[in-house]
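Researcher: Checking consistency across runs. Here is Cochlin again:
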Amino acid sequence: MFRLNFDHVLSCRGALGPSGGPVRVLKQRGQHSYSSSFANGIQSLSLSHWTSSFSLSTAGSATGSGPSFEFPRFFLVDCQLDIAVVMDSSRNIGQRRFNLQKNFVAKLAATLRVGASGPHVGLVQASDSPKTEFVLSSYTQPKELLFAIKELTFLGGDTNTGKAILHTAETFFTQDNGMRRGHPRVMVVLIDGWPSDDVEQAAILARESGINVFLVSVAKPAAEELSMVADRDFMKKAVCKDNGFFSYSVPSWFSTTKHARSLVQRLCSLDSLLCSKTCYNSVNIGFLIDGSSSVGLDNFRMVLDFLAGIAQSFDISDVGAHVGAVQFTYDQRLEFGLFDYSTKEDTMKALRGISYMSGGTATGSAISYATQNLFRRGHDFLVVVTDGQSYDDITGPAMAAQRQGITIFSVGVAWAPQDDLRAMSSEPKDRHTLFSREFTGLLDFIPLMVRSICQDFMESSEIRP
């Protein structure tokens, strides 16, 4: 038996009261597929496996009969993040607290275990104007990174946090700066007190860019200081999502290093990084291509150019967006699946290399084939390109696909009947139905198609759990 304080346990409701008490601890076997959770101010990690756990019950309860709690040891598993730390270098914080802030950032970096295949960290200072001190690719070895943090120079000036967030969102996460494709992007913003400028518009841009903004507020304004705060909801507006997970408050700079471990656990809870997914790196796009005789080889190549232009706009990778293609006449041919190619270069090469089939037009059967053979559950989009009337029913297969969560865009050319196009497209029909008299007009649809896919993605993300 031993006495365990309630605050040291993630969630022991039912086993302990707030004042602690004697408990019974029983070691148990490790398990698989542990889901992350957040309780009592602590975020646990989602892990595929851990070696051992324990059950916790009150001392008087029978073994195995009381409430139990299990948690893994603290491991950083697949915490491959690209992180921008935005430090407060304003006159408000002063030199002494700036040094304490550097200690905190160094502790974060050490806890993250920065490395070539692990998290990468860059740093921006917020002052009158933001200053990028080093980028993601500057230091991938822990000792070098810690030395760079130690050598940072205090700037002074106003607390223009909004400017710093905007600067970081617009310029920091680029491939030239070491951003890695498919890795979640995180911005950790440190602020002493409150910002001098507006953060809302900058934060909106960051969210739309797929950046997870965490705000660490140290020494929040006291009651008598609130009259000086232009926007008292700045924390809610700055973060990725106002759900408590992305906001972190610390009472004093003198205690910040104690919070490094807990903050890192949040950063590395990849399933909870809600802003990582954007339409550009999250959608599954299937192209259903009419290869009938009426299209002709030259026009078929124009169709492929049109589809390649759409695909080019997305971040295709093994952990990003996926593209697949089916060609149809009376028969169907899977040209390549959504997960056959993990780079944009290979996908574009495969798309442009599709050979023309020639034959009749059975669009309904092709939609059914694509539904069954192309998609898995996700943000699925089917772009149907056809130049004529289908010889089979299209309404039934299109409705079945949409019931499975597939959004259908119908793109008609030349003799494609408007009634058929609207029958197969998703609601609202006007947004998902396009028509061009000539094949040469397809390229003009590319920006509209990309915007519409992203609009659908945003709308579906708002209602999905």
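Researcher: Does this match what you'd expect to see?
Model: One thing to look at in this run: The mean pLDDT is 83.
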